[in-house]
Amino acid sequence: MGEFELIHQYFATAPCAQGGAGVALGIGDDCALLELPAGEQLAISTDTLVAGVHFPDPCEPFLLGQRALAVAASDLAAMGAAPLGFTLALTLPHAQPAWLQAFAQGLNAMAQCCGLSLMGGDTTRGPLSLTLTVFGSVPRGQALRRSGAQPGDLLCVGGPLGDAAGALPLVLGQRQVAAQISVPLLARYWSPQPQFALGLALRGRATAALDISDGLLADGEHIAAASGVALRIELERLPLSSALLTLLELPAARACALSGGDDYVLLFTLPPSQWPALQAAHGELRVIGSVAAGQGVQLLDAAGQSITPAARGYEHFKAASAAK
Amino acid sequence: MGEFELIHQYFATAPCAQGGAGVALGIGDDCALLELPAGEQLAISTDTLVAGVHFPDPCEPFLLGQRALAVAASDLAAMGAAPLGFTLALTLPHAQPAWLQAFAQGLNAMAQCCGLSLMGGDTTRGPLSLTLTVFGSVPRGQALRRSGAQPGDLLCVGGPLGDAAGALPLVLGQRQVAAQISVPLLARYWSPQPQFALGLALRGRATAALDISDGLLADGEHIAAASGVALRIELERLPLSSALLTLLELPAARACALSGGDDYVLLFTLPPSQWPALQAAHGELRVIGSVAAGQGVQLLDAAGQSITPAARGYEHFKAASAAK
Q1: Residue of A nearest to B316 (CA)
Q2: Which partner from A206, B45, B193, B195 sits 20 to 30 angstroms from A306, CA to CA?
């Protein structure tokens, strides 16, 4: 048995590979088998993370395992899907037992946190990268699409923005700060929590939703384009954590919130009548603006005047790190 | 819109991304949505191909697109699943339009041949590799597992063995031969045909099945171990193509068939009573041995004596190419 066959066996015996809701057959045959409840659709998303592009190389394998699964699973939450399982395609230059054990522990911790079962995968030799494909279930017709936002809806987010982008100099070791600042920010980078409970609560309420991965402005454009509406974001309403505001001046913190990416909180639109009940159950939600007729994303200052952000786009990890 | 966003749009408009059986929502939202008929299970398999490990680098992108999907889809056929769709995670060092167009054409040709719809994916920058996750459906309880082989069963294969392994020196440009030999052998390497029709026909008939990817001996061990039986392979019954027998002497051709891998034909066990009807409908099938009490894979000569093959294992592309 070769080293990569051993790795396969190793993952096959991991706690998160011991089956779960809907998993009729896990690792060990040509295919895994998944069952869906009657009337449910299967939600599927695939994400690849490449060393040096999407995460620093080298990095702590435990943290990488956590983060890789969280990033992929967040797409399920954004669709309003309940978690089922995932496959892992892991490409490694070498099979190092200590690395693999720590990676699997991190992966397993996030899998258990999310309620996702490892159903299968592939392990190959090559430059370090990971592709995770995640599976969830959602009642037919209730998936949260990007295309239903209506003028008059509220524009809302599921929690503070900008922490992961603010943490990047800490992730890269370019800056040292006190633990009470670095610990919460690094946690937002390395172990974002997919908002499954919120996604389920938004079924039948939200008119559009997605998870913020490329930054609020860039992802807001996706909802605006898919729905054929304009999104108006009020700069003063952006939720910023106290840790981020301790690390950065307000303009820099807002830039992280607008364009930094890697937040993995939900951005959604909601008829105003739905807001009170939803907020009562999910205290971290914030209204950050509104939906209007028109197109694109508009940023408004406290006086309601349109302003132009310095950067609207998403930068890959490599570009972002080079720019600091 | 960045170059990788453009690629995403490019694949989203490919013919194979225009939906198909069961695809309720394709490319463009956080997740794709798939529907399953009542009483069916979803079969899932993931395969990664790394440049220089699983295929030569550089290589023809059209051929790579064909082969990558065929290799992944073959696992569905081996499970007796009907094809539904797939996701593509493509990591590329650069976005070159001509390369992408040829790759997508090859992918599309195999997708249409197999009846698979491109449902979603991810495109990232990094060293060239591909991860495909394929989806099929199979009635509950009818999936072809590896674990049901019984003593007394016939051991069968879905077609000639060893062609892809024999083609490797041609793939690598290490040997030139006449077109009537090279064309069929290169086709077996670059565009293996997943045996979906055979897989469907084996539902309710075969007691165990898989697709041969690592070589007959290595994959035979998987059925023997999962079923708790011995497989007896009769050397003289190995089906070898005329092209392979023109390229290689008989012992070398047999070595390719036993250990070469990359065949992507089905290996299965069958009660003898099932053979006549099955063979009548699938002329390429061959009985190559039988199932007995015991364990492991035994190779028998014409006199029924056990012999030891020179190599039983699978070698990655890199190792195989280095050895030639």
Answers
A1: A125
A2: A206
